[in-house]
Amino acid sequence: MVKKQTAGRDNLGDFAPKFAELNDDVLFGEVWSRQKALSARDRSMITCASLMSQGLFPQLEAHMKMAKQNGVTKTEMVELITQLAFYAGWPKAWSAFSLAKKIYGK
């Protein structure tokens, strides 16, 4: 079961209410809850890979925390980053490893 997200409303509810609604209800409500099609664990791995590839590290940090909660192990996250280093870039991998160490521990 995917945890109900309120980040959109918490951070942008007053400023951009429609965006907040789409974030919380559609992206995290409808898409992430389709676990028969793809598990939350797998969605987390895909999302982390995409965010690392784009160099979106503030969002990657939040999704790495979710990935850990969704069952992605430290070993799997290390492999994900190592694999992507060759496709997304070595500096991005270094940055992602810094986040992973913070989230998963040394």
UniProtKB/TrEMBL annotation:
Q: Where is the Carboxymuconolactone decarboxylase-like domain?
A: 17-101
Q: What is this protein called?
A: 4-carboxymuconolactone decarboxylase
- One Pfam family in the UniProt entry: CMD
Q: Which PANTHER family match?
A: 4-CARBOXYMUCONOLACTONE DECARBOXYLASE FAMILY PROTEIN (PTHR33570), BLL4600 PROTEIN (PTHR33570:SF9)
Q: Which organism is it from?
A: Lentilactobacillus farraginis DSM 18382 = JCM 14108
Question: What does the record give under GO molecular function?
Answer: peroxiredoxin activity
List, alphabetically, the InterPro entries matched.
4CMD/NDH-1_regulator, AhpD-like, CMD-like
